[in-house]
Amino acid sequence: MDGRPTAHTEESVLSRRGLDQLIEVLHTHGYRVVGPTATDSAIVLTELESGAQLPSGWGVTTGPGTYRLHRRDDAAVFGHSAGPQSWKRFLHPPRQQQWSVNRDGVFTEPAHDDRPYAFVGVRGCDLAAISVLRRVLCPDPNADSPTARRFRRLFVVAAHCTEPGEVCFCTSMGTGPAAGPGYDLALTERIDDEHGHRFVVDVGTDNGADVLAEVAHRAAAPAEIDDAHHAVSAAAGRMGRTMPDVDLRQLLHSARDAEVWDDVASRCLTCGNCTMVCPTCFCTTSEDVTDLTGEHAERWQHWSSCFEPDFSHLHGGNVRVSAESRYRQWMSHKLGTWFDQFGSSGCVGCGRCIDWCPVGIDITEEAARLAQVLPAYPAEDP
Q1: Which DSSP helix (H) or strand (E) runs through 246?
Q2: What are the b/e assignments for 236-253, b being 16+ CB within 10 Å?
Q3: Which residue of 26, 109, 254, 333 pairs with 118 in a disulfide if CB–CB is 3.0 to 4.6 A?
Q4: How many other C-beta atoms can be found within 10 angstroms of the C-beta atom of residue 302?
Q5: Same domain, yes or no, for 208 and 253?
Q6: Checking DSSP bridges between strand 32-39 and strand 117-122, what pairing results, if any?
Q7: Sign of CA dihedral 339, 343, 349, 355
Q8: Is the pLDDT at 78 greater than 50, yes or no?
Q9: Is the domain of 218 the same as that of 252?
Q10: Does residue 230 have a pLDDT over 50?
């Protein structure tokens, strides 16, 4: 997924069987194909053996602290919004071994599965998150590291969103509903009585064109292309949430002593759910473990959260001991100081932090409250 321009700009159409064949072709190219499935009462991401595992006919109902799977009236494959998992878990695993050592002092690096990933069904918000993570985790994209190789060899089949959920606000963040640059292929799912179940396909790279050439497809008619574009454009007007139309970076910079934080702290459980489901949170910590004999030791890296009391531990104690300071740190970094570090917002508007907050704290509502009590700053262009 290198984003190279391609001369293959004509849009095509895949049938439902063509989508299954696309997954088969990706397997023949040696990819580990990952996509959404309906498992454990949620849309979760897993390695796919075939297109039959895709969540055909499943939708979701979302809200602050609410997520429910339900049956749709059609067989749509991508008729749902973001689930609890993001693609981050495959590019930046939640737990991975760094090294092991025996008493004789011989260090051993863990074996890595270097088969490349192909992601199927990546929404615009999540494609933007992958781009953000690449900048954060791979400042040198050509580095010889497992993480850099995962990003460098990634194949992305995006899904232009036509049905945003109740907590989605990607339009506010400039990340959707249309998938931005970075995909190899992008699909717009359409179902109607006249043309049946099909996917209008955009080609983003030469690699994508080569894969599509091995899949049964036909040229898209102008009316099909217009219909697909209209469906995606219409989704922008049906977002369940919106961020205030202000410069969020400046707003958060001025919000250090706002009383809003006290109110949030009275509700926040500091559980860290928001950081675990966020597709861009990247913080980790390391731990060393030994066997009972003391003959063997390992170092493991795992995800961490700025809501953990020990996250800000320095010599002499923790810097952020209150819920107020920890929530302020998370939101201020996500919407504000991320710009200073990485040149963009750390929020892509997927709404997962709202969905999976046990007490239903809504980041868009908290930003709106800050905008009401602090000086207004005109919004910058995304």
Answers
A1: none
A2: eeebbbebbebbbbbbbb
A3: 26
A4: 12
A5: no
A6: parallel
A7: negative
A8: yes
A9: no
A10: yes
